[in-house]
Specification:
By secondary structure, the protein is α+β, with helices and mostly antiparallel strands. 47% of the residues lie in helices and 21% in strands. It has one domain (6-124). It has a five-stranded antiparallel beta sheet with strand order 1-2-3-4-5. The chain is elongated.
Length: 125
């Protein structure tokens, strides 16, 4: 597990923000296709299948997977696709904590939480 300082995590935000915005947009697109995708999957069992906008749906899924992999490779934890919520593992008083940031929160990380408490347990840095 990669561990970040606040400074290191803040330095990644300009790189991460556009990727999160893409993920959020693609996730919204994929969400709008949930029912048609279920219907197409059922029809495929009987030799039919396909759906209007299927190419866009598959491309969106691919892009989400690709971007998620990029986050993983950076050591950043993607917590919520629809909100653009991420965590950066860090150390505080000798224990692992998570620096917490989401789209719309500005240019610097201002929150952290324990691994167990999650977003609801966020505290100011």
């Amino acid at each position: 597990m990669k561990v970040f300082t606040v400074k290191e995590a803040n330095a990644l935000l300009p790189i991460i923000r556009p990727k999160l915005e893409k993920i959020k947009a693609r996730y919204k697109a994929v969400s709008s296709f949930r029912e048609p995708a279920k219907t197409a999957a059922k029809a495929a069992q009987f030799g039919g299948g396909g759906m209007e906008g299927g190419t866009h749906y598959v491309k969106s899924l691919y892009e989400i997977g690709k971007l998620t992999t990029e986050f993983h490779e950076l050591g950043v934890q993607l917590k919520d696709y629809s909100r653009g919520l991420i965590d950066f593992p860090s150390l505080r008083e000798g224990r692992v904590i998570l620096l917490c940031w989401q789209l719309g929160e500005g240019d610097e990380i201002q929150w952290w939480h324990d691994e167990e408490s999650g977003f609801a347990g966020r505290q100011s840095l």
